[in-house]
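Known limitations

Structure tokens in this collection are predictions and should be treated as such. Users comparing against experimental data should check residue numbering before alignment. To illustrate the layout, the record for 2Fe-2S iron-sulfur cluster binding domain-containing protein is reproduced below. The input appears on top and the generated tokens appear beneath it.
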Amino acid sequence: MKTTITVNGQASTLDLDTRTSLLDALREHLNLKGSKKGCDHGQCGACTVLVNGVRINSCLSLAVMHDGDEVTTIEGIGGEENLHPMQQAFLTQDAFQCGYCTPGQICSAVGMLKEAAQNWPSQASEDLTGAIALTDAEIRERMSGNICRCSAYPQIIAAIRDVAGDVA
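Generated tokens:
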């Protein structure tokens, strides 16, 4: 099936098997290897990308469902010469060890901050009437779909807090 997806600002028309996941389309058809295949069951978050600004697990979504959508992968978040503030914060806070989960963590964190700025509540949100307070508990809850096998969670939270302080 012909599917046109705008990935990192560039439109691509792909002829895909309707069973192809968005993750496989990105990795195998567009050669964007930043999004990782961890569990392939939507449980680890290594494949997290932004679709129309909202974070999703790309392993659970069929590529043909995203005809006309805008997808942002880690390759589109920032570049070597112009790091996104979240990428810089991950470096500054040493928020990764093996780095396998890092692309998904960064995409998820960027999407999560947007959700919080729009006052989307989470299970940990204490006040549903005012602005979301990004406490450590709130950040942990919002990032709970992204697993780090190396347990760099304190540094990940610190990196997110650094950026949240800049955008708040």
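For this record: The mean pLDDT is 95. The longest strand covers residues 2-7. Please report discrepancies through the issue tracker.
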